[in-house]
Write a structure and sequence with these properties.
Ribonuclease iii, N-terminal Endonuclease Domain, Chain A, 8 helices, mainly alpha, globular
Length: 164
């Protein structure tokens, strides 16, 4: 039976002396966002590296397109209609949390929405809901890819698939 990355993380965490299980319910929204930021960054870096070997600077530029607050905000808007009530409540708590650091080069709305996005990702990760986490991130990434396509390319793709 094949074991996923979560098995490796869980084995690692269990072997750290003095480490106890982290319960998502015990974490503040900003702690959830802190963990979610790392998890989302790893997902995006893995995706970008998986698209081909390139200079690290190019990998960083590509990664930055996805991990900045405006991109996370955009993805969150497309994901919202797919959230359960409980997931939406976690997102709202993260969005409404008062951060110590101000938004840098982003609107306050995008920054707060991105914090809610990261809190949701962290919450799903700590609850070991990896399938759901992947499902929601995929929805967000697909919405970004559609938005990044040139207008003519989207229409041509629809014509080729018989949708237009």
């Amino acid at each position: 039976m094949e074991k996923g990355i979560e098995y490796g993380f869980e084995q690692f965490i269990q072997n750290i002396p003095g480490m106890k299980e982290i319960r998502a319910a015990d974490c503040s929204p900003l702690v959830l966002a802190y963990i979610g930021d790392c998890v989302f960054d790893l997902i995006i870096k893995t995706m970008v590296v998986g698209q081909g070997n390139r200079p690290v600077h190019k990998l960083h530029e590509e990664t930055s397109r996805y991990v900045q607050a405006s991109a996370q905000s955009f993805m969150m808007r497309s994901m919202q209609e797919h959230l359960t009530e409980e997931e939406h409540a976690v997102y709202r708590r993260g969005r409404n949390a008062r951060s110590v650091s101000p938004a840098k080069n982003q609107s306050i709305t995008d920054y707060r929405r991105a914090t809610g996005f990261e809190a949701l990702i962290g919450w799903l990760y700590l609850r070991h809901e990896y399938g759901r986490l992947t499902e929601l991130v995929t929805i967000g990434l697909q919405s970004m890819e559609q938005d990044l396509r040139p207008k003519g390319e989207t229409e041509n793709a629809g014509k080729q698939n018989g949708r237009i």
